[in-house]
Design goal:
Chain lengths: ~350, ~300
């Protein structure tokens, strides 16, 4: 029996055919997504043309499509993002640093690690149910929520000539910004922790050893060497997680935040409103306890209205949401590049 | 594994002594190995001014030191002294425990989980494993240079200033003085003085290792531990590091782990031979390399094994 392998012309033809087939499959797989996205975008933009104008950007919602605007959900989403970040980033990055830099490899750590990966995959509506019982209703121990901004208890702090009026959180929180941000923070925290852990793990252990050998404490090593080196990676994870939070509608719907809201949180609808006496500082303090709407909620709201022209309003809202998400990703890429350069690798 | 300086050991146990001495090296038979070392000593003593003072005080001392990775014992009752202002070399085959022993001296093994130490490591009479000893202070006094150069991804200046900075030195002028002094001591100043703000990672391998030495000097240590500091470097860079070690021993007590026996013979005053977690023999380098007392030591340095 001869050991040399002779290919018949048929074999060769079949091999080339398979080669081509596979290449076409990969080509189609790549472009199918692009084509679908392009169709969606073009369809949405076509609908939004003529509706996406300055009036739309600066008005509150209305029963009349030509008067409806996106100011309230835009500000609501801004508040949500800031508050969510405030809750989720310190806790998420802190947990990642603890797991990677401090904790020893025990069964407890392994359980936490496994659960983190699972939590990142839990459907967002489940977080909505959690938020509803924990933040909105607070298990009912404080009775039912009274969504009445005027009824907020206010703590007056006297500062000599002037005094600060600091509103106290209502109990239970009700479908307020604080409850929404708490829910979204829980939702994105596993993502932030896992992304930050990966960024920390990518830093070679030799850097840590070198720092410790110079008489640095663990905290100094983390603060001066590990975190700066991992910063671009952590930042990317954080911003991607925050973009997810902005786009989420399901948990907020579940919380009962789908309301007709035609005012900014705390009544702060412009920079001027923030620095004037009314609502000013007190409004800023009240805003987290205020009812709110957010971009995906408002879009959902508009789409479900019966009048046809609200479909165009919704399309304009989608374009705004997309622009917000794209600019956040743009900022992420910019910051990552900037800090990579600063790292002097 | 072994640097390019040593040819395969079986035929030419002490081949090239260094790149520049290539022409004078002769393929010696195994029995002539000790004599070859003797020649090397004569040469190096002439080349290099001061021989070490054999009357150095013990700066570091270990007593019955045992070390365990989990159940596995890596060091068995190691007792030795490291004299002040001298270079002590640890030699031995891979996995003999010499690096482990080095890392017990500044407690870098504490980082590894599941390890255990018994016995004593005395730094100027004080047990470094005593509960009262602050490991952070200890590591400032006992600096360490690693096999692979590990510059921080920061500027050259920030690399050297890091040690004093985390120790609380905030004054920029003082830091600048320390950086200049340490870079000069590490024989790197002239090469980098115009680009202190550049990334340390832009330096060559040899420069990076000297930067790491400068960085260790910046915490003003008394003892400098070096774990194969030249094994990843080319012959020219290796020679510079060796010259540097020779300079530094005037002010520091130096312990160096090396796989390169010629290097141990060239730079060290005292040599300790480790085998399978035990200290087989320790003594003046010249004695170890020319008149070893133990058969194992002789077999190793003449290249019969390892």
């Amino acid at each position: 029996m001869s050991l040399s392998v002779e290919s018949t012309p048929d074999d060769i033809a079949r091999r080339y055919f398979r080669e081509k087939l596979f290449e076409w499959h990969c080509f189609a797989a790549t472009w199918i997504g692009v084509v679908v996205l392009a169709v969606l975008l073009i369809g949405t933009i076509a609908k939004a043309v003529g509706w996406l104008d300055w009036q739309f950007m600066t008005s509150f919602d209305s029963r009349f499509p030509q008067n409806a605007g996106i100011l309230a959900p835009l500000l609501g989403s801004l508040w949500l993002t800031v508050l969510t970040g405030l809750f989720a980033i310190p806790v998420g990055v802190g947990a990642a640093v603890y797991l990677e830099e401090y904790s020893s490899d025990t069964w407890l750590r392994r359980i936490i690690q496994t659960n983190l990966a699972n939590l990142a995959g839990v459907p967002s509506i489940v977080y909505g149910i959690l938020g509803l019982s924990v933040f909105v209703r607070m298990f009912g121990v404080f009775g039912t929520a009274k969504p009445d901004e005027a009824a907020l208890k206010v703590l007056v702090v006297s500062l000599g000539i002037t005094h600060l009026r600091i509103p106290l959180p209502p109990l239970p929180l009700g479908p307020s910004l604080l409850a929404g941000a708490g829910t979204l923070a829980l939702l994105v925290m596993p993502t932030i922790i896992v992304a930050s852990q990966e960024a920390l793990r990518a830093i070679p252990p030799s850097i840590r050893h070198a720092s410790l050998a110079l008489g640095a404490t663990r905290w100094q090593t983390v603060r001066h060497q590990v975190l700066p080196a991992a910063f671009p990676g952590i930042l990317t994870g954080v911003i991607l997680a925050m973009s997810r939070a902005i786009g989420e509608a399901a948990p907020l719907l579940m919380m009962g935040a789908l309301m007709y809201v035609a005012r900014a949180p705390g009544g702060i609808d412009s920079v001027k409103a923030l620095f004037s006496g009314d609502p000013g500082f007190e409004g800023l303090m009240k805003a987290p306890y205020d009812k709110f709407t957010a971009l995906p909620l408002q879009i959902y709201n508009w789409i479900s209205r019966s009048e046809d022209r609200f479909q165009n309003v919704a399309a304009a809202g989608i374009v705004v949401l997309l622009v917000v998400l794209l600019s956040m990703n743009g900022v992420a890429i910019y910051l990552r590049q900037k800090y990579r350069k600063k790292l002097r690798w | 594994m072994k640097p390019g300086l040593i040819p395969p050991v079986t035929k030419h146990p002490v081949g090239d002594v260094s790149a520049k001495e290539h022409s004078s090296a002769q393929p010696a038979a195994s029995g002539n190995a000790l004599r070859a070392f003797e020649q090397l000593f004569q040469r190096s003593r002439e080349e290099r001014r001061s021989p070490a003072s054999d009357s150095g005080l013990p700066r570091l001392e270990t007593q019955d030191l045992c070390f365990y990775y989990g159940e596995k014992q890596a060091l068995h009752n190691v007792s030795m002294t490291v004299p002040e202002r001298s270079v002590t070399a640890f030699i031995g085959p891979s996995g003999c425990g010499k690096s482990t022993f080095l890392r017990t001296l500044n407690r870098m093994n504490d980082i590894i989980e599941g390890t255990r130490v018994t016995g004593k490591v005395l730094l100027e009479g004080q047990d470094v494993y005593a509960a009262s000893v602050d490991v952070v202070q200890l590591r400032k006094k006992v600096g360490m240079v690693f096999q692979k150069s590990t510059p921080f991804p920061k500027s050259i200046f920030d690399n050297v200033a890091y040690g004093p900075m985390i120790a609380g030195q905030k004054n920029r002028k003082t830091l600048a003085r320390i950086v200049e002094e340490c870079l000069k001591r590490a024989a790197l100043w002239d090469e980098v003085k115009d680009r202190l703000a550049d990334s340390a990672l832009a330096l060559s391998g040899g420069q990076q290792q000297r930067l790491c030495i400068a960085r260790s000097l910046a915490t003003n240590p008394e003892v400098l531990l070096m774990d194969e500091p030249a094994s990843a470097l080319d012959p020219a860079s290796t020679a510079r590091i060796e010259d540097l070690i020779f300079e530094l021993k005037r002010n520091y007590t130096i312990v160096i782990v090396t796989h390169n026996m010629q290097q141990a013979a060239r730079v060290s005053d005292f040599t300790a031979f480790f085998f399978e977690g035990r200290l087989i023999e320790v003594g003046a380098t010249q004695q170890i390399f020319t008149r070893p007392k133990q058969k194992k030591t002789e077999d190793y340095i003449t290249g019969r094994f390892g």
